[in-house]
Design goal:
Elements lengths: L5 E5 L3 E3 L1 H13 L3 E6 L3 E5 L4 E4 L1 E2 L10 E4 L12 H12 L3 E5 L3 H7 L6 E2 L9 H8 L3 E2 L4 E4 L2 E4 L5 H13 L2
Helix pairs in contact: 1-5, 2-3
Length: 178
């Protein structure tokens, strides 16, 4: 369909956060987005709440130019991708091509480690007992904002599952801007 927007969800193959994938996906699909799911391996990915998602491609098989929005999903499984060069390449190329980039929960740390948050406003999951994600963002040059959803140009970050719907809505809004 001409003019149809395409979004790619980047998820951990094991232990992605279900709400952070399913709620934004629903919002984007209702807005007419075509969805593709990628991970570090093909097959059926599993969320921590039992959700299952068919992975369409591996991260290495993604051509950035083919998509309008890149959404990094959080959850405990996302932590192990903080230093993943393939995930970093995807974020860097998407930024370089002026694409919409979004990350929720712990996933903004992947963007930080990729170098795409330097000088950008962003948020991330943290707790009173664990401020390391905030520190990581700041160490990588991000301007941390203690808000549920932060938009800086074409970059959207959010704190976690409780704002997954608003996160999806922000992606749609930013994607509509030229």
């Amino acid at each position: 369909m001409p003019g149809k927007k395409s979004a790619i969800f980047i998820i951990a193959f094991q232990n992605f956060r279900d709400e952070e994938y399913f709620r934004p996906r629903e919002v984007l699909e209702k807005s007419g987005f075509q969805i593709t799911v990628v991970s570090n391996e093909k097959g059926i990915a599993h969320g921590i709440e039992g959700g299952e998602v068919k992975v369409d491609s591996t991260v290495d098989g993604v051509k950035v130019a083919d998509f309008d929005a890149f959404i990094f999903v959080g959850g405990p499984g996302a932590v192990k991708y903080q230093d993943n060069k393939s995930f970093h390449r995807l974020a860097q190329e998407a930024m370089g091509q002026g694409k919409v980039i979004a990350a929720i929960c712990i996933a903004p740390t992947i963007l930080a480690k990729a170098g795409v948050l330097d000088g950008k406003k962003a948020t991330v999951w943290s707790s009173a007992l664990d401020r390391r994600p905030v520190q990581l963002l700041q160490e990588e040059g991000a301007i941390f904002e203690n808000k549920p959803v932060v938009v800086d140009g074409k970059l959207i970050t959010a704190t976690g599952p409780q704002v997954a719907k608003e996160f999806g809505e922000a992606i749609v809004q930013v994607s509509k801007k030229k």
